[in-house]
Amino acid sequence: MTERLNQSFEQIRRFSTDVSHELRTPLTAIRGQLEVALFTAETPEQYREAMLNALEDVEKLSSIVRALLLLSQAESGQIVLQKAPLDLAEFAVDVVDQFQIPAEEKGVTLTAALEPHAVVPADRTQLERLLSNLLSNALKYTPKGGSVCVRVGPAEEAGWARLVVEDTGVGIPAENLPHIFDRFYRVRNAQTNPIYGLGLGLSFVAWIAEVHGGRIEVASTVGEGSRFTVLLPSGEEAPEPAPPEPRAASIH
Questions:
Q1: Cα–Cα distance between 91 and 153 in angstroms, integer?
Q2: Which secondary-structure segment (H or E) carries 104?
């Protein structure tokens, strides 16, 4: 009992430290850019560049606030799913299109491999949050010249559909794999430093999969890339496959 309390207090302490750091960093940058715009910029181009940089940091700050708000809503049960039949292939195309420009700017090839007949009862807004988070992470940790692919289609198990995001990025160390879906957990290794974010993204991804009656699995090799597989029930009558151990991860 004492050990659990100590772990909880340590988690709260680390979270408070991370939140303070993540909020302070963009705020400091915004202040610096506004000072440049007000007191240093000598040309319209310099003024515009400073304001654009400030706007970028405002968006970073907004994303942190949105993550904290979503955490509060999820824990208080305020998020009510609005499920409707969703064609995963059409859905994936729409989301992938939103990430094509960021992928091109980074020099990463983003593709989609789509199979028909994968329809699931889902809340489109929440599922878009899930896929967007996985794509954002994949692009963030895939270097120039690498690739990211989204695959959708029926799963091997009858009555299930799969949504896969795989990349040729830096990969995740084996010791981190069992914990990456834990709330506030952030992977720390030499290839991914510096670390940004609150460690909430993948925990939300797992939560969204679970409230849809599904689950998420991960396979990763350092230096080769990662593959995240989301399994969702399609609503067809079929025996449910035995789920893996909670938060388990396999390495390929």
A1: 12
A2: helix 100-106
Taking Cα atoms as reference points, which of 232, 251, 140, 245 lies closest to residue 186?
140
In the chain the first and final C-alpha atoms are separated, in Å, by 36
Contact 202, 127 (CB under 8 A): no
Task: Decide: 98 and 132 in contact? Cβ < 8 Å.
Answer: yes
pLDDT tens for each residue of 179-207: 888 776 666 654 444 445 556 778 888 98
Q: Tell me if residue 116 falls in helix, strand or coil.
A: coil
Query: Half-sphere exposure of 227 toward its Cβ, with a 13 Å CA cutoff?
Result: 14
Query: What's the chain's average pLDDT?
Result: 81
Q: What are phi and psi of 162, to 5 degrees?
A: -125, 145
- Count of other CB atoms within 10 angstroms of residue 188: 10
For the chain, domains (ranges, CATH) are 1-76 (1.10.287.130), 84-233 (3.30.565.10)
